[in-house]
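Lab manual, section 2.4: Encoding a predicted structure.

Procedure: take the sequence of the chain (322 residues), apply the prediction step described in section 2.3, and record the output as structure tokens. A sample record is shown.
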Amino acid sequence: METRDLASKITRDWPAGKTIAATDQLTAAGLGPRVLNAARACGLLFRIRHGVYIRLVEWQQKTPWEQDMLRLRAHALATHGNACYSHLSAARLLGLRVWNAGREIHVSSPSSLSSTSKVRGVTVHRRTVSPEQLMRIRRRHMGIVRLTSLEQTIVDCARTSPFVTAVIIGDSGLHQGAKIEAMLALLDTLAGHRGVAAARKVIDALDSGSESAGETRTRLFIAGMDIPAPEYQVRLIVRGNAYRVDGAWRDIKLALEFDGKTKYFDFKPTDEAIYEERLREREMMEAGWSFIRVVWADLANPELLRRRIKAAMLNAQRRMVD
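Recorded output:
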């Protein structure tokens, strides 16, 4: 079958309303194994995992985090929803911010005979999770899924993930209502286990004020610098108007802002959001405030960022004297 005819067949016969589809669903729709193999070979289909496919053009249009969720959906589809997700996979399912964490699927199982034990791309954590630390949620396109509780998930990530990744997850967990006391209690039950000391450091570093992965990373960078830390998520009254900035050194009227794209794009039309941001900044500057702005690229060069912040603080101090 020629590629053009194959593409037409896939477009025509792909199961209606399905972004991803399992082999049995595709076979029932008239797209059997020979068609699937041919479509993969000529770049029409992408196999997310054994037995689960997506049209390649659709896969390529997804962001990395959307692809991560599709991998989870594919795993749930292939395992008929029987897995118990934990660690980074549970964090994604709970809607926590997951940064720099890899593509691996994480499940927890007490049995060494788990059907997922030797599947490529799946990490099985051999343990028994207490019933009170398990939950079920309904996810769109996935139905009911089993996973670890919010606090258990944060603790698991804190024990096994890189420090910054774990703090980002924990910060977002605090926004969802995670309790520090509950996480510390979980760690108390794990005394002597691997990763407990690292997890305590993560929990000590958590701050509910950070509202994005970029803000958390910026806060952690500044904490490691030889400069006084700012206040975070600061509400200011300027000429009768209430404004909020990501961070502020009030004594020298220096505001810190992390400019991630989602800050402008998530809640309002782009032009409107940027216009309001400029009005706010103009009014604050007229009242004696100055700004230092941090973007994702700045976080790749901590030393340069440190020098920029110190220079901004020095300039702000001079303005206060003049």
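Check your result against the sample. The radius of gyration is 24 Å.
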